[in-house]
Write the structure tokens for this entry.
Amino acid sequence: MSQHYYSNQPEAGHDRRELEERLRGQIFRFISDAGVFSKKGIDYGSKVLIEAMDIPQHAEVLDVGCGYGPIGFAAAKLAASGHVTMLDVNSRAVALAKENAKLNGIQNVTILESDLFAAVQGKTFDVVLTNPPIRAGKETVHAIFEQAYAHLKNGGSLWIVIQKKQGAPSAKAKLESLFGQVEEVTKDKGYRIFKATKTFR
């Protein structure tokens, strides 16, 4: 089977590069590498999610599939008095995210290698963020939705970005089957941002 960015140990040779991106009005620097998602620059979907997401200042946040760090770091700036836990199955992405946290002086993050939510069993969060690995298949994406629900506090929200052509309608239907409230926050060039809130039932 060919390797993907959601492989645990990428076999691709290294191709490190430095990126500079403005996110939520702040400049971030990132080191990326071969074998990780969107190595040449932050993908458009992640940027749409970053600009749309609403993160309370004191929030406990979980970033699932953090890659080399853009979504989680933007969230960490917004949750300045809170904390962001960042997970990725890809060991190279985790190492890069740790390096990039130091590069940007971001201290309110914990970055862990984890197959989906394995490293945070028993913990709950105010906000879960994900740009789900569509190429891993619908089963994996829907498992992320299900596990996000289990790891959210009551009143907490899951924010996701997904392209219409890559299954946004079925994703929304799945979210509506799990969560009390699902809102399409924005759409941009075929990308949809959904906010699913865990309400009391």
